[in-house]
Amino acid sequence: MDELAARLILLRAPLTGAHWFALFRRIGTATDILAAGEGAWQECGLTKRSMEVLSTSTESLITNDYEWLQHSRHHLVCLGDEHYPALLQQLADAPTGLFVSGNVQLLVQPQLAIVGSRNPTPYGREVATAFAKHLTHCGLVITSGLAEGIDAASHRGALEGTGQTIAVCGTGLDSVYPASSKSLSLAIEERGALVSEFPIGTEARKYHFPLRNRIISGLSLGTFVVEAALHSGSLITAKQAGDYGREVFALPGSIHNPMAKGCHLLIRQGAKLVDSAEDILNELGPLATLAQSLTRVSASANPSDSQANSDMVLDKDYKILLDALGFEAASIDQLVERSGLKADVVASILLILELEEHVASMPGGLYVRARSINAEA
After folding, report:
1. pLDDT tens digits along 60-116
2. What is the CATH number of domain 313-376?
3. 104-286 has which CATH code?
4. Angle at CA of residue 320, ends 371 and 325, nearest 5°
5. Taking the domains of the chain in order of start, what are their residue ranges?
6. Which residues have CB under 8 Å from 129's CB, separation 6+?
7. What are the pLDDT digits (tens) for 230-258?
8. Structural element, H or E, at residue 107
9. Rg of the chain's alpha carbons, rounded to an integer?
């Protein structure tokens, strides 16, 4: 069994990001991990279910995935890999692997999610297309979900611009959902990228789409909701973005338009009202710089290169945050107050510090220096 096949089998187990990094740090390669056995897996904290999957899985399980990945524009990107997006890696439930068809480099570029109704007004469709086209020329990748309506308009606008667009799919990448998006998906595959956490051969299921939405919001610096009814999936994506500490933008509309009611609700809840592309660029400019910095650090955090991890040099903000943490457990809110850094910056830096074993997370959403734990052990 080669390394690619071993990684594909690892992806079939319900592993958290912490489990994934622990396995690679303590054991080595994916082939080494599969050969290590339950004793080593237990030491890495794996659940009984995960160990059962790893014990019983064979190469026949991943034949379709393996064959699909032989194409030159098909890629597998796993946690800790060079092209795994640093922002997505912050999620507690980040996917351990992504299947990518197209330009894999786009995954680590600053992204804006544009989402909205599957049945938009002509105005909403025009806004999504125009904004996406303009914002790609400003250096942003437009990320959406390939659905009809605002998603499709956003992808088409990006293709009219620089072509920088990512479609996150709720199926395996050997199929397209909805079928009406087939020609659009081919254009995105050629100039942008299609992304899915689901293995090849996975068909559309209703519960896949909330999972897809968390990737859309997790990849992006911010989420722009163009038109959405109350209780729509777009509002779920916007809520996820807010929960992740990302910016949320909403387009106001007529009080008589039911597709504007969701956007108006978001604005009342604190989303930024957008009436020009500059409103988005003014907010995301500093965050794009941070995202690029995190990408550089994340690229050095390859789970198979523990020596590189230990040699990471902390920059100024990292040192500020460590000083603010001191040697007692503290919450993100406390660290924001002590350090003067924004909450999303603190959360981003804490993720990298935790991966590098400078800090550790504790129950109740607290963080502590790793040395403090070691000293108490």
Report:
1. 999 999 999 999 999 999 998 989 998 999 898 899 999 999 999 999 999 999 999
2. 1.10.10.10
3. 3.40.50.450
4. 40
5. 1-70, 104-286, 313-376
6. 153, 154, 156, 157, 160
7. 988 899 999 999 999 999 999 999 999 99
8. none
9. 21
